[in-house]
Write a structure and sequence with these properties.
Layout (H helix, E strand, L loop, with lengths): L1 E7 L13 E6 L4 E8 L3 E9 L12 H23 L8 E7 L3 H18 L3 E5 H7 L13 E6 L4 E8 L2 E7 L5 H12 L5 H9 L24 H13 L6 H29 L5 E5 L6 H10 L4 E3 L4 H4 L4 H14 L22
Parallel strand pairs: 2-5, 5-6, 7-10, 10-11
Antiparallel strand pairs: 1-4, 2-3, 3-4, 7-8, 8-9
The structure holds 5'-O-[(R)-(carboxyoxy)(hydroxy)phosphoryl]adenosine and zinc ion (ZN).
Length: about 350
Amino acid sequence: MLILYQYGNEIDTNRAMRGRNIILAIETSCDETAAAVVEDGHIVHSSIIASSRLAFERSGGVIPEHAARAQIASIQPVIEQALGTAKCSSKDIKALAVTRGPGLLGSLLVGTVTARTLASIWQKPLIGVHHTLGHLSSTWLDSEEAPQFPILTLSASGGHSDLWFRTAHTEGTLLGSTRDDAAGEAFDKGAHLLGLPYPGGPSIAKAAENGDETAFPFPLPLGHDDTLDFSFAGLKTALKYTIRDLAKDLSSLQIASLAASYQHSLCRHLVDKLTRAIHRHPHSKEIHLVGGVSANLHLRSLVTEAFPDRIVRWPKIISYCTDNAAMIGAAAFFLMQEKGDAAFQTFSTEASLPLGEAVHS
Ligand code: KG4
Ligand code: ZN
């Protein structure tokens, strides 16, 4: 398994360790194996991310059983590395946190079984975290000034695309979500059609650098619909038929322009729904972009242009946009703060954990 990201910032042991909110977090919902040590929901002492993604470049997507087998092999070394780089031991940790769903069941089980075992051996409390609450918390990581509620958040990943209006970390309402594919999935499927490697988001963004985004004007999905939902399946089909109608062997310039036009249409759709949402919630103090797709530079610039008078944030580094354990550690801290003892209640591991359980109204 390839270590994608490794960060360490030793715990300051000059301050008393007792009473500090240091959480060891584990995330294994998809093809990554990640562990992190996070204090107070924003200070990252370590973040380690390993991934079997290289094995899936040719398949165009994750093969669940392969991912879980790789995670079984790497979970323990990754946790040891997270503790080692933060220079802390189980004694310094207040609680463990783990992603309980949604995701690939085999992968989620590797993380939750490991977390339950460690929590039992070390006699520490364990917090089960909704993967989406992790993404929603990722804008706090390494952040010096705390963001201000209410916040309108676009969460767009390989498995989800949702718009949230949040009044607190764990409270708010779901304004809309995808009716078919997720935004990241649309990038992945589009890349596959264009013969570009998985994951599709970064490879489409790279190919698009040399292309013309106006070359292939794809339609704006749900453009005449008042809903705040998303739909990406039509765009993917439009790309498929455009490729079919072009010459058999696409030139690299054609691929670049198809990638740029497709990326532009996907991002315009996301910005269109954000614009409608801000009209309905004009008192939103900030707009946040989270999830793998928030790494997209074109999306960031379109959102910044569309909302010049608002504070717009995205995670401080790319590895906090895509799946990571630090965001799970942040979410667990906010659950402790806002839900008290309820944060520690027993939980099941669920592949299809409903979106409504990420944040409560
Ligand atoms: O959040 P994430 O790591 O995993 C899920 O929870 O799904 O998101 C992965 C998704 C993939 O579909 C990937 O193609 C997309 O995020 N992604 C991007 C970029 N980097 C990753 N999409 C657009 N532009 C990017 N730069
Ligand atoms: Zn994710």
